[in-house]
Amino acid sequence: MKSKQSSHLRSIMAHMVLIILSFMCLFFFYILFINATRSHADLQKGFSALPGGYLFENLRNVANDGTFPMFKGILNSLFVSGCSAAIATYFSALTAYGLYAYDFKLKKAAFTFIMAILVMPTQVTAMGFLRLVTNMGMYDSLVPLIIPSIASPAVFYFMYSYLQSSLPMSLVEAARIDGSGEFGTFNRIVLPIMKPAIAVQAIFTFVGSWNNYFVPALIIQSKEKMTVPILIATLRGADYMNFDMGKIYTMILVAIVPIILVYLLLSKYIIAGVTLGGVKE
Amino acid sequence: MKTKHKKIDYAKWGYFFILPFFVSFFIFSFIPLIDTIRYSFFEYYRSGIKEVGPNFIGIENYISLLGSDMLKYAANTLILWIIGFIPQIVIALVLAEWFVDARLKIHGTQFFKVVIYLPNLIMASAFAMLFFTMFSTNGPVNEILMSIGLIKEPFDFLGSVFGTRSLVGFMNFLMWFGNSTIMLMAAIMGISPDVFEASELDGCNSIQRFFYITLPQIRPILAYTLITAIIGGLQMFDVPQILTNGQGTPDRTSMTLIMFLNSHLKSRNYGMAGALSVYLFIVSGILCFFVYRMTNNDDPDGSKAAAKKAKKQRRR
Predict the structure, then answer these.
(1) Who among A151, A207, A281 is closest to B29 (CB)?
(2) Cβ contact B35–A278 (<8 Å)
(3) Are the Cβ atoms of A255 and B14 closer than 8 angstroms?
(4) Residue A114 CB: number of other CB atoms within 10 A?
(5) Is A156 domain-assigned?
(6) Is residue A166 situated within a structural domain?
(7) What is the ipTM of this complex?
(8) With 0-12 CB in 10 A as exposed, 13-18 as middle and 19+ as buried, what is A108?
(9) pTM for the whole thing?
(10) What domains are there in chain B, each with its CATH number?
């Protein structure tokens, strides 16, 4: 009886802590949303918990601002993140299949190598990367933000684990007997089986690329090629005190809204995917 | 004989499949790495419009880095990381334990999971910009605190060492505690329910259960979380960079190692940037080795070894 009561108390406490933490997570986004719907003059008057009616006015101001081409930035970011997600998942699946299905001499060495660089920070090679990109004539271009994602060790590891659990080799052998070529087998039979893994990793690669700031900030120079994080950084570097604060909040809002929308639609898969990439069970 | 021949034929296809990965890695990671290491031994920078170097100067860059503020920035990075990480791992452990505990009957588990994971996906630079505007002296947070009478005058969060460091730590905490919670939850759910049932029969209370069963059982994943978090902490950049506009204000107390690297890269001081990168490479290489050991260990939690031992004892 007593233990029942104490677990009831613990349950109430747990719920309270969870509500406080959730409040902390949502509070800042709530303020962001409220302030993005109010005009500069309203914001100067003080904080209000209720939204105003200025959202569309603010959005129009953001769209017409030539110094911070936010919507062009969103298009650039969408392009870079979309291409990176497609390339990273396809080539990682290819690599994973190559190492899973074939017994070649360097198989073990190749696998060991990829696992060794699994969590290597990209920043340590940033200097050489910057020089390489400059020498290749790709400085201030979106291409060097996309192509290197062909080699994504973490995505590879996820794909490899997935193949281990869901691709019987007998299926591949059956395809061979039916006269399917090796690449044909991969594209027509293996890829469809890997769809769930590809979807999860595409989301994570997309989000990672969308939020990436360090490397793009080194490579992109001109305004019309900037991705969203660089625009946010230039906004921070500018003399923000003279700005329309409603517009600033709206800029931050449009920078994060695409990801929030994706997340709300796919949260179930994303949360299930978090643990799959980690340590194997 | 014929089938054996055929198998060798197929095996070669593996090289074609893994070729793009390795070509891309070679061009965009390996060559840059070698280049970075090479220039770390050169005097090579730009002052104004004039380019100095490259002149070979041996390990002078490494020595002058040790004499510079690098160690201070390393300490900053560590402090900022600890401020965020300690609450993150504690809260994550507690939440994970609660979510798994059926007796607590947590309502809306899925809702809470979705909410606490949300900050992890938000663009760190936009999040930092949001905090910057909200915690400025005339921002909404100060207005709220004043209107409920907690403070009389606006508090300059970003003007004080304590305020800035706490904000960076707090943001890192918010962005990562949901992720850790979900990881640790999966780990706890992997523990055999028999162990929990047995402990309950033996009259183990929830605190004892947490310290004597849950914690030891999830130790491998906890270690993995810790080391990947250290690697993530080493790379800390976006949040302090945007929050302080790359200055690490006040008085460079929130300047991290990667911000230091970034400023060398921006000013095209390739020699120094190279040497700093090599230092970072060595540290992260050591950490990567630990992760490699963990992910490739056939027996990560010692369960197989324990089973073998038990078998031996039973035989006896």
Answers:
(1) A151
(2) no
(3) no
(4) 24
(5) yes
(6) yes
(7) 0.89
(8) exposed
(9) 0.88
(10) 68-267 (1.10.3720.10)
